[in-house]
UniProtKB/TrEMBL annotation:
The keyword NAD does not apply. Residues 13-280 form the GP-PDE domain. InterPro entries: GP_PDE_dom, PLC-like_Pdiesterase_TIM-brl. Keywords: Signal. This is Glycerophosphodiester phosphodiesterase family protein. It comes from the Bacteria. Coiled coil: none annotated. The keyword Zinc does not apply. It comes from Fontibacter flavus. Pfam families: GDPD.
Length: 280
């Protein structure tokens, strides 16, 4: 069983489980979130797509990625095939795909079992029930809206409509202090900043050395600046802090690197391996 023993470590920083606990469980699934909670994650990071019948689905790609999913017959999907497009599927079709049984060479320790992509609403219900049943601290949610055109014929919905749909769902289920929206798509951040001023936003970027230009382009200071960790320095962290932002880098997968970033005074760490997070 994937339900483990609720062994909780306490962390003084925001330990964010990337796609749940991707190093251990099939990514962006309910078991991946439950495992992250057991490992002491304070925030659950996840990505969203949306079906043609308007269901918000937890998935990194808006298609059934051949690296992680089997087709409805249980067969492999050819490499690079993006034709199993979630935006063009109903939810009933989405749950025909097993996205947990296939060996993932990037995460060889992942436990393998049949699991389907969940709806965001079902994932939140399962997490909230789990923490209540086992008297665990309530986690926060770091919700990524993936709305940038990816090429190869994948149609992406209008970022405003997508954001409205996601926020209506989130606000109906959890209080706004318990979630933030993150995006690489500045249109999403700008829209939510204007239309939902109370919502915490995290700006996703690749290269922290360009933070001044990035913030200028965005046009406002988000509450959280979330760069790829490699170019981050303690000077950049300090400058962002002076400007009132938190700094939460992604995706940091060794204890040593997590320790270096915590020494730079980052506010949180996004990791596929919450089990490797330093106790501080
Ligand atoms: O939370 C940030 C991180 O998830 C961004 O990268 O590609 O894993 O969504 P990606
Ligand atoms: Ca993400």
């Amino acid at each position: 069983s994937y339900l483990s023993m609720n062994v909780q470590a306490q962390f003084s920083y925001d330990l964010q489980g990337h796609r749940g606990s991707r190093g251990i469980m099939p990514e962006n699934t309910i078991p991946s979130m439950i495992k992250a909670l057991d490992l002491g994650a304070t925030t659950l990071e996840l990505d969203l797509a949306i079906t043609k019948d308007g269901e918000v689905i937890v998935s990194h790609e808006p298609w059934m990625n051949p690296v992680i999913c089997l087709d409805p017959q249980g067969n492999e999907i050819p490499d690079q095939d993006k034709s199993h497009n979630i935006f063009q599927m109903s939810f009933e079709e989405v749950i025909q795909y097993d996205c947990g049984s296939k060996f993932h060479s990037g995460f060889p320790q992942q436990v393998k079992f049949h699991v389907t992509k969940p709806r965001l609403s079902d994932l939140i219900d399962a997490v909230e029930k789990y923490v209540e049943d086992f008297n665990l601290p309530r986690p926060n949610y770091n919700i990524e809206i993936k709305s940038m055109a990816d090429g190869d014929g994948i149609f992406h919905p209008n970022p405003k409509d997508f954001s409205d749909k996601v926020l209506a769902l989130l606000l109906s289920k959890i209080s706004p202090e318990r979630f933030n929206v993150q995006s690489f798509d500045f249109r999403v951040l700008q829209y939510i900043h204007d239309a939902y001023p109370g919502i915490t936003l995290a700006m996703l970027v690749d290269n922290a050395s360009k933070y001044e230009e990035q913030l200028q382009e965005l046009g406002f200071k988000p509450r959280i600046y979330s760069p790829y960790f490699v170019a981050l320095t303690k000077e950049i962290v300090a400058a962002l802090h002076e400007n009132g932002m938190k700094v939460i880098p992604w995706t940091v997968n060794t204890s040593e690197q997590m320790g270096k970033l915590l020494d730079m005074k980052v506010d949180g760490i996004i990791t596929d391996y919450p089990n490797l997070a330093p106790r501080r």
